[in-house]
Amino acid sequence: MKLENLTFKGGVNVPHHKDLTEGLPIERAKEPDVVYIPLHQHVGAPCEPLVKVGDTVKVGQKIGQSDAFVSAPVHSSVSGIVKDITFMFIPTGQKVKCVVIESDGKNELDESVKAKGKLEDLSPKEIIEIIKEAGITGMGGAGFPTHVKLSPPSDKKIDTILVNGAECEPYLTTDHRLMVEYPEKIVFGLKAIMKAVGVERGIIGVEKNKPDAILALREASKDEKNIQIATLKVKYPQGDEKRLINAILGRIVPSGGLPMDVGVIVVNAATTKAVADAILEGKPLYERVTTITGHGIKQPKNLLVKIGTPLKDLIEQCGGFTEDSPGKIISGGPMMGIAQHSLDVPIIKGTGGILILTKKEARPEQVQPCIKCGKCVEVCPVNLLPLYISSYSLKKNFDKAEEYNALDCVECGSCSYICPAKRPLAESIRLAKREIIAKKKSK
Predict the structure, then answer these.
(1) Any idea which positions bind [4Fe-4S] cluster 2 (predicted)?
(2) Which residues are within 8 A (CB) of 15 and not within 5 positions of it... i.e. 6 or more apart?
(3) Is 318 annotated as a binding residue?
(4) Was 415 annotated as part of a binding site?
(5) Architecture of domain 117-279
(6) Which of 58, 295, 362, 435 has its CA 20 to 30 A from that of 122?
């Protein structure tokens, strides 16, 4: 069965602005003088430091770990001296404990960084342990530990692994470049994940605006009878995992459910490549590709960045701002990204892009009263009623917002984008979700 031109119901067509970086090969970022490596950059329990001030560390050395199952170890991205362990803000807005390391510029690898053997010789349990020890997390979303995702309960029968190569967020081209430049590793990573979970079917979903990536992946997988490349219509939020499942497999994840409830595990393209690196090279997740882009930066780039590198270092490498000061700096893309208040925050495992907007682009539009046009309802990919959830949230009636299934919102921002009155729909729904979750935790 051909998997071509697939999509889901709802969503919006947004200007993608990927032309700024989609044709630019990945460059290695300049070596940072100092890195600030957060011990909590994933869903789950934070890590505790395994090093102390004054210790000498090497690249790939484990410097943070937790005994909790839902967590992921953290590794040094440079060789050098631990200068401090202190609390700092990270791109998610959280203030977490960070290990501050001054690089010696030598990039001396830790002895643990070595190939883990041939895939055919590794058992599923060994593959999952390699992924866990490498500290691999989801690199396109919330940062969920990958070894946990690949260990579903015994009653959840998984039949398909989907690799999310949609990258529908405007401006970002990280996954695109990885699929073009490292298609063999993405296919290898998918095969490893399929073996780890005991699945015979793997599908890589890519939006049609990445024809070079589609071609590269098809060539890399031509001898793999259990792996298919699915082409997707260019529509936002095609990369939301539940929308991806619906578009490619026609399955609907139930309200409050997870992909494993319909027999699927979804992994990001960058995460899949990281799995390949961990097995083939023994490389932990201590660096990642990040797109530095936008009309507010002089030289947009796709950079291979060491985790813990401050944003200011990357801005400098990209030539600085096009204006005296930027209109807004966003970690991620314009639809789901988080605005940053400082250039001192470090790159973390989930930082797929840094977007710099000009003052004109960042200027907010005037909010008008809702005219009940229903456009937000038409485009909502989850079939919610955004105008009502938002209204209850703005009135602080969070119980009523919950009745309207606020927790099912994926925070894609399609409703805010399409609203002619420029209502703060996504922002107020996000607030309602936080309040509802906080209330549940307090009980």
Answers:
(1) 380, 409, 412, 415
(2) 170
(3) no
(4) yes
(5) 3-Layer(aba) Sandwich (3.40)
(6) 58
| Residue 409 annotated as part of some ligand binding site | yes
Helices 425-442, 386-394: axis angle to 10 degrees equals 60
If you average pLDDT over residues 54-67, what whole number do you get?
A: 98
Q: What is the pLDDT of residues 411-422, one digit of tens each?
A: 999 999 999 999
Q: Are 355 and 375 in contact (CB under 8 A)?
A: no
State the pLDDT at residue 422: 96
Question: Is 376 labelled as part of a ligand binding site?
Answer: yes
Residue with tokens 């793999």: 224
- For residue 280, name the pLDDT band (cuts at 50, 70, 90): very high
- Segment 24-46 shows an average pLDDT of 97
State yes or no: pLDDT of 1 exceeds 70: no
Asked if 243 and 237 count as a contact pair (C-beta separation under 8 A), the reply is yes
Q: Are 163 and 3 in contact (CB under 8 A)?
A: no
Q: Which residue has the tokens 């699927």?
A: 264
Q: Is 168 annotated as a binding residue?
A: no
What are the residue ranges spanned by the domains of the chain?
117-279, 373-440
Buried (b) or exposed (e) across 301-320, using 16+ Cβ within 10 A?
bbbebbbbbbbebbbebbee
Strands (E), 233-366: 264-268, 287-293, 301-306, 328-331, 338-339, 353-357
On whether the CB atoms of residues 61 and 341 are closer than 8 A, the answer is no
